[in-house]
Amino acid sequence: MQRPVRVAILDDHQSIVDGYLYRLAENPRLEVISTMAYGEELEPMLERTPRPDVLILDVSVPTSPSNPNPYPILHSIPKLIQEYASLYILVISMFADKGLIRAVSEAGASGYILKDDHALIRDLASVVLSVSDGGICFSQRANQMLLHGDTVPAKQRLSTRQMEALSLSAAYPDQTTADLARRMAVSNSTVRNLLSTAYVRLGVRTRSAAIERARDLGLITPRPSVYTTPT
Fold this sequence. Notes:
Elements: E1 5-10, H1 14-24, E2 30-36, H2 42-46, E3 54-57, E4 62-64, E5 67-70, H3 73-83, E6 88-93, H4 98-107, E7 111-114, H5 118-122, H6 124-132, E8 137-138, H7 140-147, H8 160-171, H9 177-184, H10 188-202, H11 207-216
Parallel strand pairs: 1-2, 1-3, 3-6, 6-7, 7-8
Antiparallel strand pairs: 4-5
Helix pairs in contact: 8-10, 8-11, 9-10, 10-11
């Protein structure tokens, strides 16, 4: 008998999690083994056994109870996929930002579903099973954004590593470049170079200004906002 496909959920809105649990319970082949509200719960959960096959991930969850800044998913997704080769990541988000969708896709996620895509949310069990088998799934609007040209001016486009560095900077605004370098497992000079070239491309002079400009362009996770469940 085939074992169930194990699923973990990282989303800080309990009503949303409850909806996912309801949809996933419709298929006996799926087993939810963990739900989390904070980004810093994720890696300790993955170190336990059994591990999930599919991670449902929101793009804007708090990093920890003491750090309300968004968890740096653009840094975490490639790291998790590298470390846990059998893990598939499905992003479900309220943010329809072309730059963010593209960055999440390039980071290695298996899909990007918008929370107001009622058809795919209703069919979430089938979507998760498809992703667990190596498939991909994008909301139609998200897919159209990927297929059409980038609206970000060429001079302001950032590399994946630049977006990763800014994503980390937004999550840990008080940390030094040396601290960020340790998180990225690169040298301090590499982080400084990534940030300084990002500043030039974005036309700003400070880290905080770069974070806000990148958010405005949809290149990193937007600032957290109150979310209302779609009716």
